[in-house]
Amino acid sequence: MAKTEISGTMEGVLKDVDRLTRELQKVGKKAVQEGDWARTRVVIETATRIDRVRASLQSAGDELDELYDLVSAHLEGGPVGRSRRTTKRIPRGSKTAETAYWDPILKALDDMGGKAKTSEVLDRVYELMKSTLNEFDRQPVPSVPSQQRWRHTAQIVRNKMVKEGLIKKDSPRGVWEITDMGTRAAASGTVVPTKKAGPKKGAKKKR
Fold it and tell me: Domain boundaries in the chain?
């Protein structure tokens, strides 16, 4: 299958998901108008699940592009990265923390006019972070030897930023686009990921 066919297929799937979201919004609007709060809650829960699925599909599509490039390199006799068997798991805390990627990603998008292809954004992020990234960040990902770990981490962070409302979730596949909230955050120069509050260690649950 050609790369354009893969892209077209994934784009079609994402469009189907978006259509499903629009239909669900109609159901939710009607439920609110009729005061059907039980149905409204179900719609909200369903919408959250759809958002998660879309983010996963977007991430999978980006990884498919990376895998296509890897297979193409093999077919053309290009250099081969480390195999999964010979790549050791890195010590915990060795790679650069995910929180260090938030500001560079927003700045990269802001510098590029708010919207750009994944590869272009990542290239710009690298320029902003190359003095921060360490040897572990530059090692290949075991599952995708052609991809350095920092690029994989940046894409994971991007999905989290979508959930925070800093990056648009409905952009075309392979494109990252900043939101108005993201633009304001980029202007402030500091982005702090939202931490979900949980029970403190040792705290007893109330009965």
Answer: 1-80, 94-191
